Amino acid sequence: MGVKQGVKFVIITGLSGAGKSQAIRLLEDAGYFCVDNLPPALVPKFAELCAQSGGKITKVALVMDIRGGEFFGALHDALAYLRYHEWPHEMLFLEATDEILIRRFKETRRRHPLSAEGSIQDGIRQEREALKPLRERADKVIDTSALTPAELKYELQSLFLKGDDAQSCLVRAVSFGYKHGLPLDADFVFDCRFLPNPFYVPELKHLTGLDAAIREFVMKDPHAAEYLALIYKVLVFVLPHCIKEGKAQVVVALGCTGGRHRSVAMVESLREVLHQGRHRVLVEHRHISEGV
Prior knowledge:
Elements: E1 8-14, H1 20-29, E2 33-36, H2 43-51, E3 59-63, H3 75-84, E4 89-95, H4 98-108, H5 120-130, H6 132-137, E5 140-143, H7 149-160, E6 170-177, E7 188-191, H8 212-219, H9 222-244, E8 249-256, H10 262-276, E9 281-285
């Protein structure tokens, strides 16, 4: 039959409150196609859809747990399907002590999926018993009782992320205009308003930082290149510490007056140097379409 090449499945299950949501967020940040609370009966159809994606979907993480109610029992059949058809897959089981789980439910003020008519502890007991066969067949069991979020993330990275994926932090480089306000999600803000402004050059005024003429105008100033080098140096220093603290991304905002010229040109130049340094980067120009 042959192993299905190109698509890897990670099945995440375990006790409610043990950290499954954090696990799937980590894998989503690492490029996995993630589905939370997928009915197990849909796994065969979902696997075939992944196979038909033309290589666009290569890593999949599925959370399937007791929330599925009567559908959850089909998980054993879903795992048997993946095994029979030789889809590469691993199963991660997350658990914690009763005391820790009760504390987490009380802190979040959420009810246990099985405790509609009883106590949280009764729900945990029922769930632990129901999941015992899955725990026994899991490829990896993690007890999250004593783990901080950062420690759990490190544990998951060591299991599922290899090479550059395990040591990367996404940089979101954002251009903006100060007259529209500071980006609320920015971790670092750099002011580009001291650079020469193309707005006051008639033939450049109606262009944007995406145009070659604006890029050339802004970057030919020696202070622009020096400033770009300093921003990159700050990021190279900060990113390893962000990874250590468990941050999945860092938002770096560069602003000018209107957000159309200087900041856009600088962000595009920053994108290039980050790519050259083999950093993952996404670019967003928040005010480039605002009127002149």
